[in-house]
C-alpha cells in the first residue's frame, strides 16, 4: 500500500525575470519585486487558493500571501535583472551579474575549504564562483538568514553535482545569456514522494546548469 502512495506528487515552482529599463525613477527594486509577485500570485494561485494579495511577513521576515495555503515568494535584483521565485513552500532566489571580483578573497572568507580548492583549479572561474555564491545566497534567503550565515551553510560539490547539509531541499541554477546566474532553493520535505519537480519560467534564454538532488522539468509560461 505504501508503494502506491509514493511518487504521486508534483511540485511546481514559478520563476519570472525581467530586465528593468529604470525609466520609472519613483519605483525602486523592492516595489518592482512586490508588484511582480502580486501579478504572479494573481495569475497562478488566487483562483484556486482563495488568496489574499496582501503581503504578510512570517518568521524571520519571510514574505508570503495568505490564503487556503500560504504562497511564498522571494525576489532578487542585480544590475538590470529582477527575478521572483514563487511556490507553496519556503523559497529563496538569488541572481548575480557576471563581473570580475576578488573571487579567491571572497571564497576564503565565505566558502568551505573544498569549495575554495575547486575554484583554484577551475577552468571557468567566473561561472563556478557565481554558481556557488548564488546557491548559498538562495539557501540563506529561503530561511531568512543573513549573509554572515553563508560560511556555515550548505557545502557544494560542483564536480559531483552534490550538496551537503541540504536535507529536504531542492536547488536549481540557471545561466541567462552568459551574463547572469540565477539560483533557486526550495524546501521540499519528503522529496522522494514527488513524481516531478516542475519549474515554470517566462523566457527562452534560461539555461539550466546545475540542479540537486534531481533534474527538474522546465516549462515555458
Strand content: 35-45%
Number of distinct helices: 6
State the order of secondary-structure elements, H for helix, E for strand.
Answer: HEHHEEEEEHHHEEEEEEE
Instruction: Give the terminus-to-terminus CA distance.
Output: 36 Å
Low confidence ranges: none
Radius of gyration: 17 Å
- Percent range for helical residues? 25-40%
The total strand number stands at: 13
Which structural class fits the helix and strand makeup?
alpha+beta
Mean pLDDT: 90
What does the overall shape look like? globular
Q: Report the major sheet.
A: 7 strands, mixed
Spatial order of strands in the largest sheet: 2-3-4-5-1-11-13
Task: Kindly describe this structure.
With 221 residues, this protein is of the alpha+beta class. The chain has a 7-stranded mixed beta sheet with strand order 2-3-4-5-1-11-13, with helices on one face. The protein has a 4-stranded antiparallel beta sheet with strand order 6-10-9-12. A hairpin with a 4-residue loop joins strand 7 (155-157) and strand 8. It has helices at 2-5, 29-44, 46-49, 103-110, 113-120, 125-142; strands at residues 9-19, 55-57, 63-65, 71-78, 81-87, 91-97, 155-157, 162-164, 169-176, 180-187, 194-201, 206-212, 217-220. The mean pLDDT is 90. The protein contains 6 helices and 13 strands. Helix 4 runs antiparallel to helix 5 (113-120). The N and C termini lie far apart (36 Å).
Amino acid at each position: 500500500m505504501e508503494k502506491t502512495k509514493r511518487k504521486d506528487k508534483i511540485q511546481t515552482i514559478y520563476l519570472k525575470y525581467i530586465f528593468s529599463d529604470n525609466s520609472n525613477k519613483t519605483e525602486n527594486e523592492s516595489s518592482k519585486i512586490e508588484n511582480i509577485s502580486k501579478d504572479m500570485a494573481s495569475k497562478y494561485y488566487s483562483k484556486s487558493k482563495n488568496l489574499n494579495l496582501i503581503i504578510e511577513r512570517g518568521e524571520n521576515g519571510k514574505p508570503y500571501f495568505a490564503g487556503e495555503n500560504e504562497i511564498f515568494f522571494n525576489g532578487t535584483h542585480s544590475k538590470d535583472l529582477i527575478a521572483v521565485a514563487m511556490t507553496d513552500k519556503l523559497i529563496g532566489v538569488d541572481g548575480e551579474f557576471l563581473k570580475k571580483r576578488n573571487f579567491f578573497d571572497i571564497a576564503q572568507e565565505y566558502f568551505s575549504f573544498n569549495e575554495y580548492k575547486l575554484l583554484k583549479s577551475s577552468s571557468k572561474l567566473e561561472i563556478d564562483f557565481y554558481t556557488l555564491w548564488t546557491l548559498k545566497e538562495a539557501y540563506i534567503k529561503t530561511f531568512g538568514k543573513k549573509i554572515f550565515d553563508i560560511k556555515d551553510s550548505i557545502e557544494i560539490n560542483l564536480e559531483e553535482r552534490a550538496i551537503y547539509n541540504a536535507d529536504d531541499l531542492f536547488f536549481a541554477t540557471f545561466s541567462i545569456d552568459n551574463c547572469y546566474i540565477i539560483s533557486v532553493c526550495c524546501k521540499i520535505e519528503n522529496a522522494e514522494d514527488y513524481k516531478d519537480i516542475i519549474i515554470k519560467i517566462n523566457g527562452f534564454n534560461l539555461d539550466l546548469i546545475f540542479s540537486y538532488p534531481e533534474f527538474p522539468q522546465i516549462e515555458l509560461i
